[in-house]
Design a protein that fits this description.
Helix content is about 45%, strand content about 10%. By secondary structure, it is α/β, with parallel strands linked by helices. The strands form four sheets. The protein has a seven-stranded parallel sheet with strand order 3-4-2-5-6-1-7, with helices on both faces. A six-stranded parallel sheet has the order 8-13-12-9-11-10, sandwiched between helices. It has a two-stranded antiparallel ribbon with strand order 14-17. Strand 15 and strand 16 form a beta hairpin. The longest helix is centred in the last third of the chain and has 21 residues. The two termini are about 50 Å apart.
């Protein structure tokens, strides 16, 4: 089909490569193996899709979820690319036809789940047709210490043994240095060229707050900033998912639940609605998201703490894949820390894995309690440094104030020690504030010297101090009982007055300024925004006619450019980013009609 640049422009509709895309593509086209780390939305799919169209043969793409591969296949077919997926949900006749097309060299890309690929029958099939390359997507699934571990990925090293002359490219958006080493070793990619793009997602605003009333905080966030937007809300338990989805629906939000406890039919139906409808919100456990390619998710919200910074980065990365403004919003509290540690300690994982998981959770807690730029800290975790603060996270937009908390910290540490290091935060705060509860009197803690010592400080402020002490690693939480607080050696310098301590000042929740609503993508002109909405309606109608997600026709970023530039003819329409030859021929007339109608009736663009 020509050179990579020709394929990029005429098939995918882009006039220039981004970042290291061209170097990666050239390496794979030349037959080299590659390990690619590129953030979600960074264009990593093109790194194997373009070589698939340049090299002879069929590219075999290993993808962990059927939903993910079907999304990509639908999008590629819209571009005129001969892509198919082979999985057990198809009829026998369909599977036979796809296999025959592969043998005949009639496919550009063939998507397979790792379980399907590793069947001996499939391996024999692959030996009967020309193969352009192997692409192993979501390669972090090979890591036994990761949050998305898939044991089948461990066996993919067999590709190097059986198809040694075929280039392989492993891709992921989430992998620190130890995980990258593990990917190389387990996939037999020791000699592969490594490409690490920036992990930065500058279009995402990162925001984290103390949970006070999680659902009310979520509702305030959605109603004031993301009304009518598509988004994902993550909860830790199935019950929380069901209750939160029902509560949001009662508030008028188009919200649906998704978790493993639902029937397959209901999960599939809810996922299909999220993918194919505009403005749909899905409330889910972490079982949802890796298989979703939806580019116009405008927010990802966490009502509970994720398991690690890798998980946080992966989950929040599902927002704003189209490069337009999006928000990663989270609330958390001490209960999250206790639940997460209980889950870790109660698992049957080896002690070494538990140790790694505890360290990862500690890193996440430290990130939550930052008073400095969150993006710099997040990138530093993945080995990348920023020279300046980002200006697009809560600590940059609304800088927190810090206070010398040495004395309150000493009071807190002393209260933990004098109550015997066997009580949770609530009881220790009651003692400090001088509350003579039944429990306090029963243990005679109203007779301690620390009783009432912190009475002028509000309960919420004390809880904030304790949360920060735990996040700083100065206090441990015993998860075997009821979250009892324990001192450790790291707190001794503070307790003895040998070291001062700065902590975030407790502040009451503030309403944030409205930043976006109703599917807004940052258009400054009201008329442009109204035209954008009309273009979305046309896209939705076309998508419903074909039974495909709207974004496989055009991304929001493409519609935004159309709304701003208002092309008058097919030649100008073809200059829009994301409009390739096939989509130009297929959709230009329909969207140009929307623009012509808009210009003919200017009053329609006025919003009262």
């Amino acid at each position: 089909m020509g050179t990579p640049a020709h394929v990029l422009e005429h098939t995918f509709g882009f006039d220039a490569f981004r970042g290291a895309q061209q170097e990666i593509i050239d390496a794979v086209v030349a037959g080299d193996d590659a390990l690619v780390l590129m953030p979600t939305g960074g264009g990593k799919s093109l790194c194997y899709q373009i070589p698939a169209l340049v090299r002879p043969g069929t590219a075999i793409v290993i993808s962990p979820l059927i939903a993910l591969m079907m999304d990509q296949v639908e999008g590629l077919q819209q571009l005129g690319v001969k892509a198919r997926a082979l999985n057990s949900s198809m009829s026998g006749a369909d599977q036979w036809a796809i296999e025959a097309a592969f043998r005949a060299g009639e496919l550009d890309l063939l998507y397979l789940a790792p379980e399907r690929l590793l069947q001996e029958r499939t391996l024999r099939l692959l030996g009967e047709g020309p193969i352009a390359l192997f692409a192993i997507d979501e390669a972090h699934c090979v890591s036994q210490w990761g949050h998305d571990f898939r044991p089948e990925y461990l066996q993919l090293a067999t590709l190097a043994e059986r198809f040694g002359d075929v280039p392989r490219i492993a891709l992921t958006a989430t992998a620190d240095a130890p995980t990258r080493r593990e990917i190389r070793a387990r996939l037999n990619l020791e000699g592969a060229r490594e490409f690490v793009a920036s992990f930065d997602r500058p279009n995402i605003t990162y925001r984290i707050a103390e949970r006070r009333n999680g659902r009310q905080q979520l509702w305030q966030f959605l109603s004031s900033e993301h009304e009518g937007d598509a988004g994902i809300v993550y909860c830790l338990s199935r019950r929380a998912v069901d209750e939160t989805a029902a509560w949001l629906a009662a508030q008028g939000v188009a919200a649906l639940p998704y978790h493993a406890g639902l029937s397959a039919e209901e999960r599939n139906a809810n996922q299909a609605r999220f993918v194919k409808e505009e403005g749909q919100v899905i409330v889910a456990t972490i079982a949802f998201g890796m298989g979703i390619d939806k580019p116009n998710v405008r927010f990802v919200a966490h009502l509970d703490l994720p398991s690690s910074l890798e998980a946080y980065y992966q989950e929040t990365g599902r927002a704003g894949r189209d490069g337009l403004p999006a928000t990663a919003w989270m609330v958390y509290g001490l209960a999250d820390v206790i639940r997460r540690r209980q889950m870790m300690d109660g698992s049957e994982a080896p002690e070494e894995r538990k140790r790694i998981e505890r360290r990862k959770l500690d890193d996440l807690l430290g990130f939550c309690e930052l008073t400095s730029c969150r993006r710099r800290a997040l990138l530093r975790y993945f080995g990348e440094e920023m020279d300046t603060d980002c200006g697009n996270c809560d600590t940059c937009l609304w800088p927190p104030t810090t206070v010398d908390a040495t004395e309150p910290a000493r009071m807190a540490l002393s209260a933990i020690y004098r109550t015997g290091q066997q009580f949770g935060v609530g009881h220790v705060v009651d003692v400090l504030r001088g509350k003579s509860t039944d429990k306090v009197r029963r243990w005679c803690h109203d007779e301690l010297a620390v009783f009432g010592l912190g009475e002028p400080t509000a309960e919420a402020e004390w809880r904030s101090f304790f949360r920060q002490l735990i996040a700083r690693g100065l206090v441990d939480v015993d998860v075997d009982g009821y979250g009892a607080l324990r001192l450790n050696d790291r707190c001794r310098p503070v307790l003895r007055g040998e070291e001062s301590l700065e902590l975030r000042r407790f502040e009451k929740a503030k309403k944030r300024a409205r930043r976006s609503s109703g599917g807004s993508v940052g258009l400054e002109s009201i008329d442009d925004q109204a035209l954008f909405d009309a273009l979305r309606e046309k896209r939705l109608a076309l998508a419903q006619e074909q039974g495909v997600p709207p974004y496989v026709i055009f991304h929001d970023a493409t519609l935004r450019e159309i709304a701003v530039t208002r092309p008058r003819d097919e030649a100008a329409f073809g200059e829009i980013s994301g409009v390739g030859d096939k989509k130009l021929a297929r959709y230009a007339e329909a969207f140009l009609e929307v623009i012509d109608s808009w210009d003919a009736a200017p009053a329609a663009g006025v919003i009262e």
